[in-house]
Amino acid sequence: MLHNPPATPARVAPAPPYRSRLLRHESRMAYAFISPAMILFLIFTLLPAVFAFFLSFTNYDILSPIKWVGLANYQRLMTDDLFRRGVLNVAYYALLYVPLMIALSLSLGLALNRKRPGMALFRTLFYLPAVTSSIAAATVWTWMFQKNYGVVNQTLDVFGITGPNWLASSDSAMYAIVIVTLWQGLGSNIIIYLAGLSGVPTYLYEAAALDGASPWQQFRYITVPALRTTTFFVVFMSLIGAFQLFDQAYVMTQGGPGYATTTAVYQIYSNGFTQLRMGYASAQAFVLAIAILCVSLISMRLNRDSGLG
Question: Contact at 8 Å (CB) between 103 and 150?
């Protein structure tokens, strides 16, 4: 009985020496190009974050030596009514801001997506607030919201409406901040929706029109499903922005009146840089970071379960 000799594995030819030298050179160049960004990230982001995490377990006021207190700062957060009020304010702000942002940016995106003369100019005008300084914009809007001589109340008077004392009333201060942040954030989200609308095939609308679908039916059964991923991204970024609300609350109301507009980030600033309670402010910052992380993970899970990812 004849036995075939065992097959020898195929040998892979080694890479030519010049190719190995080229790959090593490309690797060195890649590390050389990314090293400045990595060094800056290490110095100005990673190391401060690590140090802040350490400070969250200490009592530190800059003027005195660091004192280790363990979990005392985190335990204090559990009974801090002001911190709880800030969390509720952020939740209330997000409940107002996110749906309005989605509705307005999608509506304006649909309007600006039409092929009409002057659309490029209108797109530019709507995007201009996004590139303005948030501090400067909040300062201007503070004057516009003045009760007696502000532009907002004077405009309402034309229609026979008596405007409230926007920034001095706990009932209307948060609404004023929502208006300002909507005005400044619409431009970026309109651009995102325009990019999403450009990816919707036009033949779908043509086929739907031939089948007798109304504009509302085309929007419901074609536009909305096609923009699910875009809408998820806008919602996700708007939620993160809501958690990080600070500039407008700081400039326009200083967290008032009666803590009606105080937010988590405003409390971090107040504790850290006004009252010099760096350890407690660091603990608040990490609780906020964990909250943003949880929202991000939940959003990505919902995105994956809905088949959008």
Answer: no
Q: How far apart are CA 10 and CA 234, in angstroms?
A: 52
pTM of the model: 0.84
DSSP code per residue over 117-161: TTHHHHHHHHHGGGGS-HHHHHHHHHHHT-TTT-HHHHHHHHTT-
- Give me the sign of the Cα torsion angle 223, 229, 234, 235: positive
For residue 197 the two structure tokens come to: 């609308």
Q: Which amino acid, residue 23? A: L
> Rounded to an integer, what distance in angstroms lies between the CA atom of residue 214 and that of residue 220?
10
**Which neighbouring-strand residues pair with 59?**
67
Mean pLDDT by 10 residues, the chain (309 residues): 54 60 84 92 92 92 89 91 92 94 94 86 90 92 92 92 91 94 94 92 90 90 91 90 91 90 92 92 92 85 66
CA pair distance 25, 194, nearest whole angstrom: 42
Instruction: Please state, in angstroms and as integers, the Cα–Cα distance from residue 62 to each residue in 65, 67, 75, 277, following that order.
Output: 7, 11, 22, 8
